[in-house]
Amino acid sequence: MKEVHHRVKNNLQVVMSLLNTQSVYLKEESAVNAIKDSQNRINSMSLIHQRLYQSEGLSCIKMPEYIKELISYLKDSYNTNHSFVVDVEYIEMHVAQAIPIGLILNEAITNAIKYAFTDEKKGKITITLKHFQDDSFLLEIADNGVGIEGEIDIEKYNSFGMKLMEGLSKDLNGKFSITSSNGLKVSVIFVYDYAFTVK
C-alpha cells in the first residue's frame, strides 16, 4: 500500500509537470490561470498521498498537519502576504473524506487570495475544522475581504470553483453554504465517518 501511495503521488506530480510545460505555450492569461488552478487542485491530492506514504497508517491523514502544509504551498504558489489563522482540532480522516476536504480548502483559499482583497490590502483568512455537534464537523474558510454584494444563489452562480465545492460537499454528505458579511465565509457541515477509523 505504501508503494501504491508513492506511485500515485509521483503520477500526480508528473501531471502537474505536464500542465506546467503546457502553460509555457499559452499566451492567454485566463488559460494560464486555469492551468495553475488545476495544478493546485492536483497538489492538494498529491500531498495526501505523500503523507500516507510517510505515515505508519496507510489510510488516515492527520488533518492539522496536512492543512498547514496545504496553506504553506498556496501561500508560496501565489506569493501572498495575507495572514492565515488556523483553528483545526486534532483529527485523523480517512483518505475518502480527506481528499474532498482538501479540494474544498484549496478552492476556497485560492478564491480568497485571488479575489477577496483589493488595492493590495493585507487581509486575513481563517480556516476552521472542528467538532460541530454529535458526529458532525464544521469546515469553514472565512476572509475579511470585499465579500459578494447581494444575495448569493449558488445554483445560479456561474463559477466552476463554486460548483466544484458544492459537488464535493455532496460527496461528503455535507451541507454547503456561502455567506457574505464583513467578507466571505464558505462553510461545510458534514458527518465524520468513524467507520473508516475504527481499529
Please give a structural write-up:
- The chain is α+β, with helices and mostly antiparallel strands.
- It has helices spanning 2-24, 29-54, 63-78, 95-115, 160-171; strands at 60-62, 83-88, 92-94, 124-133, 136-143, 175-180, 184-191.
- Helix 3 (63-78) runs parallel beside helix 4 (95-115).
- The longest helix has 26 residues, at 29-54.
Would you spell out the secondary-structure blueprint of this structure?
Layout: H1 2-24, H2 29-54, E1 60-62, H3 63-78, E2 83-88, E3 92-94, H4 95-115, E4 124-133, E5 136-143, H5 160-171, E6 175-180, E7 184-191
Parallel strand pairs: 2-4
Antiparallel strand pairs: 1-3, 4-5, 5-7, 6-7
Helix pairs in contact: 1-2, 2-3, 2-4, 3-4, 4-5
Give short descriptive properties of this protein.
199 residues, alpha+beta, five-stranded mixed beta sheet, 7 strands, globular
Can you summarize this structure?
The protein is α+β, with helices and mostly antiparallel strands and 199 residues long.
